[in-house]
Design brief:
alpha/beta; Ribosomal Protein L4, Chain: A; 2 domains; elongated
Length: about 210
Amino acid sequence: MKVAVYTKTGEETGRHIELNDSIFGIEPNNHAIYLDCKQYMANLRQGTHSSLHRGLVSGSTRKLKRQKGTGTARAGSIKNPLFRGGGRIFGPEPRDYRFKLNKKLKRLARKSALTYRAQENNIFVVDNLNFDEIKTKNIVNLCKNFKINNKKVLLVLAESNKSVYLSSRNLRDVNVVTASDLSTYNVMWASVLLIEEKSIDVFEQILA
């Protein structure tokens, strides 16, 4: 699959680059995408939620009333979940939500997500995404040049670039990631991908 290479001004350089069909042109696997996105979001969860069950509530452990003869249900503790101020039944407890996925499945999920964006013609390859100054206006103008300023944009860099990251930090609909750290969730979140030309080589090494 051939795509044109653009400059930051949105103009074509006259060059084209070949996107590997084994990365950008496979048969997408929706379930792999689902599992990888689910794992990504699960890993973000702190899992620190907690509540007091009857063993943690402070209070007396004496028996409130005699077992029989009162005409009401038996009660052994004021911490009974049925009483006001008692413990909570089956409440949340701290836990780890992370789970394991095989590397092959995660690789398939990323390639499937990239294939979807390629099929939609929402991938633009840019020769260079570096900026000399740290200005939010640089990223705003970049999106305007490609007429994508009203869409969710993912900037994929070949290597970490502080000026690009800081310039985009104030924009809600723009995210920056390096090619080696690209996740399925990032690709599915974005409507359009602006990929730095050198990043294609990184994809070849990681995903091909």
